[in-house]
Design a protein that fits this description.
heterodimer, A: about 525 residues, mainly alpha, two-stranded antiparallel ribbon, about 0% strand, B: about 475 residues, two-stranded antiparallel sheet, 20 helices
Chain lengths: ~525, ~475
């Protein structure tokens, strides 16, 4: 048996979380930072040792500790990338909360470390019910993070977050019971190859969809997200946007598509329809926001809609694109929330109108903000370009109309992001207090610079990120091959004409008389 | 079967009865100061009964005592162990509570002992008459316990309400028993089952419905739940903790045995009733709790809600379902004891109970340890993983799905989200709101011990118990289904 690195990655933050509960503010911060950095190191080790092109499931661990389900961990390339995203963002979240959280620091850090345990657990779980436990347990720390350390309207937001996501996931549990009863196993890799009856797939798919659509979030069940984002503390927003929203997409890749391929194909129209509405509607809503966090929250809904259409294109480009959008969006929207947090810490307002002309007094900040704004728009050379391009290329093969709508959404995305940037960073320094704000300090550099580097790396050389996932996405495509829809943009082969185009009817035929 | 064997099998009940009688005499001839000593003796008796019950467990089919009046099998032993544990916990926390008010008397442990005897007869009964004797023995001592704080009007009111409504329910059960006896000519469970087989008349159906309706009252299932909030609120808190735990285990176990063994051939006749009661309890328990400001009333509605989930396991009418009910009961006992003991510890320096949401506002800053324990208990009651309360819901809903009752499971679990609302409100008040009142006074060690143990069981560590718990519950279910 090899070294149980995944268990260690779960144990380190767990021990840290328990320790933080009993420590004072200063030591809790240090413990949290140390634990997350240690986990980042373990994550890098994981990536280095991941054998690209090797077995589909690596670092597997299994222990029969419980009745009905077992403690089974293991990752493929897709899970590896999402785990990397989580462990990468986590130390940054701790840094982001370093000064801004002053009350009950120990409990705050404990909640974040617990969050990390659960996120890694979700991505690494190889048992259906173990997955569910990690998936659902995330509600508890997030509820506390929003409710205790959130903004003014935090109570409403925390309730909404909790009840929405809970209602979504309980139906999934019933579907899981049915699946386990039918297939006789709780092992996810086995279930991914199991052919459920086509009639039942419809209901199972809907039950899983209820859960993942809320997490994703898809229109019209996205309304918890703006509230939760706005009220959560900065680091909470980063985790929500960066990782928690990815649980929905991961769920589609891991469950809906491989386990219910027929239902996925039959109901792809639903996903497309909801995603198209989301792309246009939420982009327009984002355009008129006066609250920076709300604007970014709505932009997340629009980006996630690109992910869903990419996934339901059923081809390699679409799925690879969706994964890249998820990774890119995790970095970029997380970074944008950090950018908002940086100025929120100074002025304590998220009103766009209270800022202006920040490029004059905070040039370094403005530069980072510009980079992440451009990345969010999907400028070539940044992470989101790769993802959005691939996803749209994938969906173009299925439906030109959906592509048209989604591309319009990207244009709208450029509109609201540039409009935001102009109002915050450019123009006159209308507010004296905003004009006095100091530029980035060392801690903020340490938060933003790694994300900027990762965004550029992903934009310039996406192969590093695509390579581990390639084999798994190919396996998924093979699984979906039987239900892949027809290209509507493919060349149509008609019946060949009888004669050449320049043929003129005549005597021998129709050629002119000589 | 010899008397010796019968007496051996009923050893726990006989031992407790003798202990109760002796302690009753001691109470009568000693001063009030002896109450503490009597409590310790009662706890010792219960521990003895507990150990004896565990020693009887052989994982097999069990044995019958007194010519079919009484059965000792995995099912009844499982229930008895839970009942004894709950009773011990309620005894441990009582002296300090009543002592503060200066009215702790030796009757309290004695009444609990007799109650325990009644309850263990209920779960072991395989004859309608044994069942009724056990039921009344438990009920009568419960009525007195409800009004134990006799200087408190609300406690007396609770006792009276409980007595009148409980008496009515007993009457209904007795009427149902008479009908069943009239149509089958038998009071033994197996004889009834055989008599019903292929010969189930409308009159007998009436009997079954009456019996089940009376049982529904005892377990506080909707639509026979109305007494619960009033009695739970009025009764002294240790007594409420007791009502919500041990008698509930006993009544549910008695209902399960009745439904599976004598009425087990006529599942179709009672399944609809149970399904209705389950869903109605979940919904009414959840909706009723939303408007409550009083914490004890809220937990009363929560217990109605929990009964709904328990009944989902019974509605499945399969061995898995019964095993699910038993696992749920085991987890439920710890959650209930824990949450009521936590309420017990919520009192200010003058000894007044902090009984409303306003009183516990901001508890996480004034008393963090207690607030974190309550947080774990509430999330556990709401069935959020990784807390162990989730496992209880998990097993009953899995049983429902395995029995192909997917709609029931889907509606039930969706309704559980309504219940989550007030559990998270509890947490909101403790953690998100600013403190308004005074910090709670220091609680005695005995309370912390009981609370700590309960929280330990319902913490994620509880999952390590699942293989073991599952095996015992499966053996318990098998003990009932061997007659099928």
């Amino acid at each position: 048996m090899e070294f149980p690195i995944l268990s260690l990655m779960l144990a380190v933050p767990l021990v840290g979380a328990i320790a933080c509960l009993f420590l004072n503010a200063g030591s809790a911060r240090m413990v949290a930072l140390f634990a997350t950095l240690f986990n980042l190191a373990l994550g890098i080790l994981l990536w280095i040792n991941y054998d690209i092109g090797g077995a589909q499931w690596q670092f597997t661990e299994r222990a029969e500790l419980f009745a009905v389900f077992s403690y089974a961990l293991g990752i493929d390339g897709i899970a590896l990338m999402l785990i990397m995203l989580s462990v990468f963002l986590m130390p940054i979240c701790i840094l982001a909360s370093w000064d801004s959280i002053t009350k009950r620091v120990g409990e705050y850090m404990a909640a974040f470390l617990l969050m990390e345990v659960l996120m890694i657990g979700v991505f690494a779980a190889q048992d259906l019910f173990l997955f569910y436990i990690f998936f659902e347990a995330g509600l508890i720390p997030m509820y506390l993070i929003i409710g205790v350390w959130g903004g003014d309207n935090r109570i409403y937001a925390s309730y909404k977050f909790f009840l929405y996501t809970l209602l979504g996931s309980v139906l999934m549990l019933i579907a899981m019971f049915w699946m386990v009863n039918e297939a006789g196993t709780t092992d996810i890799p086995t279930l991914m190859q199991y052919d459920f009856p086509v009639g039942a797939q419809f209901w199972l798919w809907l039950a899983f969809f209820a859960s993942f659509a809320v997490k994703m979030p898809m229109w019209p069940v996205h309304t918890w997200l703006p509230d939760a984002h706005v009220q959560a503390p900065t680091a909470g927003s980063v985790i929500l946007a960066g990782v928690l929203l990815k649980l929905g997409g991961y769920g589609f890749i891991r469950f809906s598509l491989p386990m219910f391929p027929d239902a996925s194909a039959d109901l792809a129209w639903l996903v497309f329809a909801l995603s198209m509405v989301a792309v246009i509607y939420t982009s327009l809503v984002a355009l008129v926001q006066s609250d920076m966090k709300k604007l970014i929250a709505y932009s997340s809904v629009a980006h996630m809609a690109i992910v869903t259409v990419g996934l339901f294109a059923f081809n390699v480009q679409g799925i690879e694109g969706a994964m890249m959008v998820m990774l890119g969006h995790g970095l970029v929207s997380g970074a944008l929330f950090l950018c908002v947090g940086v100025i929120y810490d100074r002025l304590h307002t998220r009103e766009i109108a209270r800022y202006g002309g920040l490029s004059i007094n905070m040039p370094k900040y403005a530069l980072f903000f510009l980079l992440f704004t451009m990345a969010s728009i999907g400028l070539p050379g940044t992470s989101n370009f790769v993802g959005e391009f691939l996803a749209l290329a994938g969906i173009y093969k299925v439906s030109t109309f959906v592509t048209l709508v989604c591309t319009t959404g990207i244009i709208l995305g450029a509109a609201y992001m540039l409009y935001l940037y102009r109002r915050v960073a450019f123009g006159e320094q209308v507010n004296a207090d905003a004009a006095r704000m100091p530029d980035l300090n060392a801690r903020e550099w340490a938060m933003l610079a790694p994300i900027a580097a990762a965004v550029l790396w992903m934009g310039v050389y996406p192969e590093s990120f695509l390579a581990p996932m390639r084999q798994d996405i190919a396996a998924l495509e093979a699984r979906l091959a039987s239900v892949t829809p027809q290209y509507d943009s493919a060349l149509k082969v008609g019946t060949p004409k009888e004669h050449n185009a320049n043929f003129i009817a005549g005597e021998h035929g129709f050629e002119g008389e000589h | 079967m010899s008397y010796a064997t019968s007496l051996y099998l009923t050893g726990a009940e006989i031992g407790l009865s003798v202990a109760g009688l002796i302690l009753l005499l001691v109470t009568a001839w000693t001063s009030r100061d002896a109450a503490r000593g009597i409590t310790i003796a009662a706890v010792a008796a219960l521990v003895g009964a507990l150990v004896f019950s565990v020693s009887l467990f052989d994982g097999g089919v069990g044995a019958t005592a007194f010519d079919g009046l009484f059965r000792v099998d995995a099912f009844s032993l499982f229930a008895k162990v839970l009942i004894f544990i709950a009773t011990i916990a309620c005894l441990m926390v009582a002296p300090h509570y009543f002592g503060e008010r200066g009215d702790y008397r030796g009757e309290y442990p004695v009444l609990l002992l007799f109650n325990a005897v009644g309850m263990s007869m209920m779960v072991s009964a395989t004859d309608l008459l044994t069942l009724y004797v056990g039921l009344e023995m438990s009920s009568l001592s419960s009525y007195v316990l409800a009004s134990f704080a006799r200087r408190d009007d609300r406690s007396s009111e609770a006792g009276l309400k409980y007595f009148i409504l409980g008496g009515l329910a007993s009457g209904i059960i007795l009427y149902g028993i008479s009908l069943v006896y009239g149509f089958t000519g038998a009071t033994g469970y197996e004889a009834i089952r055989i008599a019903f087989d292929g010969n189930f008349s409308t009159g007998a159906l009436f009997g079954v419905v009456f019996v089940l309706a009376g049982f529904a009252f005892k377990i506080a299932a909707v639509p026979f739940h109305m007494w619960t909030p009033d009695v739970y609120e009025g009764a002294p808190t240790p007594v409420t903790a007791f009502f919500a735990s041990a008698p509930k285990v006993a009544a549910v176990s008695m209902l399960v045995r009745m439904a599976i063994v004598p009425f087990g051939g006529e599942v179709a006749a009672w399944q609809q009733i149970v399904i209705f009661a389950a869903l109605a309890s979940i919904v009414v328990g959840a909706l009723g709790a939303i408007g409550q400001q009083n914490l004890k009333r809220l937990l009363a509605y929560s217990s109605i809600n929990n009964v709904g989930f328990i009944l989902i396991g019974l509605a499945a009418a399969t061995p898995e379902g019964v095993a699910g009910v038993m696992v749920y009961l085991a987890i439920y006992v710890f959650m209930t004891i824990g949450s009521f003991v936590a309420l017990l510890m919520l009192r200010d320096e003058q000894g007044n109970a902090l009984s409303t949401f306003d009183d516990i506002s901001g508890l996480s800053t004034t008393s963090p340890a207690l607030a974190w324990c309550l947080l774990a208990l509430m999330f556990s009651l709401a069935g959020i993983p990784p807390l162990f309360g989730f496992w209880g819901k998990f097993v009953v809903f899995q049983a429902a799905v395995q029995a192909d009752m997917i709609q029931l499971a889907a509606i039930g679990i969706a309704a559980s989200v309504i219940g989550a609302f007030y559990y998270i409100k509890f947490i909101k008040v403790m953690f998100f709101d600013e403190p308004k009142g005074a910090a709670p006074a220091k609680a005695p060690t005995s309370h912390w011990v009981v609370l700590g143990l309960s929280v330990l069981v319902i913490s994620p560590l509880g999952y390590f118990l699942t293989p073991w718990l599952g095996d015992i519950a499966a053996a318990a279910a098998q003990a009932l289904f061997q007659f099928a």
